[in-house]
Design a protein that fits this description.
With about 200 residues, the chain is mainly β. Helix content is about 0%, strand content about 50%. It is globular and about 45 Å long. A hairpin with a 5-residue loop joins strand 7 and strand 8. The longest helix is centred in the C-terminal third of the chain and has 4 residues. The N and C termini lie far apart (about 35 Å).
């Protein structure tokens, strides 16, 4: 289990000034937008506008704080995404834009490079066992309050904004427990794509 403390995460403003992004974890470490296998980040969205285009990337988005947004993906009807909605999956190379429904929001964004990695994103609101299934890596993100993790390595406490990177080999079984009913966290499951290495 590797803990990622919020204070160590780098936040950078968007070029268009419409928000800022905080990188939580990326593989391989130090990878740029052009060569990551997977990336997990939080973004502060302060204005309406188009999303950046990411060719060959699959994305999942969840709203953490704020009144939400209306997300238009390609030619489809806009979808409302707020703190009670299930995370939304979409292709990063499809034109996508967002309209804020009531001021600034913060979202959680998971991206994997198509053909190399796959992911799932799940919101956790009560104590659960971390079911890796056939996924190799799990990342627990605690954006709203304390979360405890209990694994064969011991118990770790995530404070607000922290994250933990777990491996199926070392951290099974693992129990995820938000501090109270008002605290929620997110579980990201990652695995190499079944297409990886095929010719």
């Amino acid at each position: 289990m590797r803990i990622v403390h919020a204070i160590d995460c780098r936040t950078t403003p968007w070029k268009n000034g419409g928000g800022a992004t905080t990188e939580i974890a990326v593989e391989p470490p130090g990878a740029s937008f052009d060569d990551f296998d997977w990336r997990i980040s939080m973004a502060r969205v302060a204005s309406d506008g188009p999303f950046s285009k990411f060719a060959g990337i699959d994305r999942t988005l969840a709203v953490i704080t704020g009144h939400g947004l209306a997300l238009t993906i390609g030619d489809a009807t806009a979808l409302v995404l707020d703190g009670d909605s299930d995370p939304i999956r979409f292709a990063g190379d499809v034109p996508t834009s967002a309209r804020l429904l009531g001021g600034e929001i913060v979202d959680l964004n998971v991206m994997t490079r198509r053909g190399r990695f796959e992911h799932r994103l799940r919101r956790i609101r009560e104590p659960v066992a971390c079911d890796f299934a056939d996924h190799r890596t799990a990342v627990v993100v605690a954006p709203s309050g304390d979360v405890s993790l209990t694994s064969p390595q011991g118990t770790a406490l995530l404070a607000r904004g922290d994250a933990a990177i777990l491996s199926r080999a070392d951290d099974t079984p693992c129990r995820i427990a938000p501090a109270n009913e008002a605290t929620e966290c997110y579980l990201v499951l990652l695995r190499e794509s079944r297409q990886a290495g095929r010719t």
